Structure formats: C-alpha cells, structure tokens
Amino acid sequence: MNFFGTAIQGKEWMKLLSGVALSVLVIGASAGLSGVAEAKAGTPQEAEIATSAAIGPFDDEGYEQNYIQPVSGGGFAVLQMENDEASSVLKVTYSKLDSVLEPLWKHSIILNKQSGSRSGRGNQRETADGGQLWLADYISEQSDRELFVICTDSQGDTLWSSPLQTEELFGSRTDTRIGLEPLQDGGFLVSSLDESADEFTVSKYDQAGKFLWHKVTRHTEAGWLIGSGNGYTMVLNQTGGSNGRGPVVVLADVYGREQDRINLKLGNAMKISGIQELEDDRIAVTGELERGKKLVKRTLVLNRRFQPVSLSQEYGPGSTYVPADQTIVRVEDQYDSIDSGSGLTMHGIVITGLDAKGRAQWQASTHYREDPYFQVVYDEDIVYKIPEGYALISKTSGSGSLVLDFIKILLPGIEQGS
Description:
Blueprint: E1 8-9, E2 12-13, E3 45-46, E4 48-58, E5 68-70, E6 76-84, E7 89-97, E8 103-112, E9 121-126, E10 132-139, E11 145-152, E12 158-163, H1 167-170, E13 177-182, E14 188-194, E15 199-205, E16 211-218, E17 220-228, E18 231-239, E19 245-252, E20 258-263, E21 271-277, E22 283-291, E23 294-302, E24 308-311, E25 319-322, E26 327-337, E27 345-354, E28 360-370, E29 374-386, E30 389-398, E31 402-410
Parallel strand pairs: 3-28
Antiparallel strand pairs: 1-2, 4-31, 5-6, 6-7, 7-8, 9-10, 10-11, 11-12, 13-14, 14-15, 15-16, 17-18, 18-19, 19-20, 21-22, 22-23, 23-24, 25-26, 26-27, 27-28, 29-30, 30-31
Protein name: Bulb-type lectin domain-containing protein
Organism: Paenibacillus enshidis
C-alpha cells in the first residue's frame, strides 16, 4: 500500500493538506547508516552483493510488490504462482523468510484453471494478529473469474480458505487489478480498479471470507487502500467529476461511508505513483512528474493524521527511497559488447546508497555475461531494509519464464547473520 504530499517550486513548498504546512519539515537532515563505518569525504564504502533466497518463476511483471511483503518483527512473506498449462492447474506457493532471508516455512496448493487462460495473479498482506492473507486471482475450470483466499496464522497453518463472492467487485469484467487490505476486526477489503471505466470498487468481507458490502468510486485512474481501525482510507488519482481532478485522500467508516475528503497539493502534473505502510502507523507516499524529458520522484512520510514527518530529496528513475534510514538506493546498468556481432555482452550493475544530501555512502557492483538467452536486471523499485543492509530483487530472463531471486547488499561494519 502507498501515499504522498506536494510538489517543489524552486525551494518553496506549497501546502500539503488544507491547514497543514510543510514548514515543519527538516529537509536535508543527514541520514546515518547504523553500524556502518562513516565514509571518507567523496569515497563511498565498498559493499558486497550476495545472492540469497530464490523466489521462482514470475508472470505478473510490474506488480512484484503484491507478491513480496515485509512482515512485522522482520522477515518477508512471499507468494509465488506457477501456471502449468499442460495440466491446466495453477500452483500457488506461499512462504515466509526471516529477516536475513532464510526460509522459515513453505506451503503449496493446486487450483484447477481454465485451459489456455492467462496465468493467475496474486496479492498478499499481513493480518492484524501476525497471520497472513494470500489471494489468487485466476480463471477457474468453469470459465469464471475467481478470487481464492487462504488465511494462515503466523506459523503458516491454514485457518480457513475459500473462494470469494465477487460479482459486486468486478462483475463480468476480466482484467481489473485487485488490491487487498486486512482490517483489525478480522475482516478484510478487496479493491478492484477498472482502468477502462475509471472506477475503483471496494468490497468488504468478514473474518471467514463472507461478502458484506461494496462501494464504487468513479473518476479514478489509480487507487490504494489503507486500513484504519475497522474503517479505511483510499488514496486516489482522480480524473474529474463533481469533486474535481488530482490526488485525493478519502476517509471512510466501517460501512464504507465517506467521512472526509482531502485534496493533496502535489503541483502541476504531479501524481501519486505508489504508497507504502511503515511502522508506527506512518505512510510513505511517492509522487512523480515529468520535468521536460526527465522523470522526477519525491517521497514524503506522513503519520496517520496526514501530518508530514520527513521528506526525501528529488531522485530520478532507477532509484528508490528507503524511509527506514532516509537513504536513496540507486541502480545503474552498463552494457559493453564482448565480441562484435556475437550478441554477447557484459552487463555491469552498480548499486549506490545516497544520503539525504545526495552523497554516496556505500557502493556495490557486479557483472554478468549475457546473451539473447540470459539477461539479469535488478529491480530498482523494490528495495527493503534488512539488518545486514538491504534486500533487492533480481530478475533473470531468457528462453523460459522470468525468474525472481532475492539478493542482499551487505554493508561494511555490520556483523553478518549466519
């Protein structure tokens, strides 16, 4: 899940929310890396890239964060879906890793799907009691679109599993995007974004997966859900209508009734591109805009009352802001031909950690020999803080499906786990 605040005009920032000014922010404060030896001026410390847990084949590019989620207490929950066309089944694997990316447990189920239908999509979120909801979105063997949910406890044991009633959620539409958000009452919300109609639908289910109600918000081109007690908040990019255009925050009660609506002052052409829920009920909101031919991003951290807490500097494509230590992690690629006409290249990858003032604090690099049947990239949009340093996702493509793996960035001066 995800959220954001306002656009820069020179060095002056406009108001983020009605009555809330950004003057309370301390911009450019130095971001220290705990346990890391301080770099000499202009000389970043050398970090190490280490391959870690394998995730497996992947077929929903651009939505990796729905499948890989940090959990409370450290560690990650990982959802993996593998389409077996020969047997017309979808294998759903759900697992948990500890904070140093070592496996804790793994389970799988098999769902019968329609032959020739698209591969299944997935989503997963941690519940209020430390368990997990795992959602599979696929075309069943009866040719109907189905959402199948598994609810597990913190040890991975299944509490219940069931297909959901979805007629109100997406009707006969077959290609809407699905969001998921557990609530403190044990129930959960599922959202559906219909990009062709600019509609954002939210359905409420109880703690056993029984449908309760649904609400539709029109004139919406992108939307995210955030649980708030037993109610919820929607963060939306709106396209028009009686409430106007632009990014808004909509607060709803336990029945989905709108309680408040706040227009976010992001500046001309600035839109929310993603939100992330953090510890202590904070929210990191990333906004982006095109300045000339350059994409510019900025991340604002807000508390649950939508008051600004911290603000990142501007950063561009190929970079991610990590709120946990106010670090910008930048991934750069360089391809050099090995032999003219052979199609073989040497792919160099450099990963740099920048502090709040844009100074390089650490750097790691690696390289791969690539050809048309083997290419590796690091996903610059998915970066997690772990005790040893950072965790990123690598993507290997070639003659088969895209394959995902966790990699670690091991920082100097931090004792590595076993």
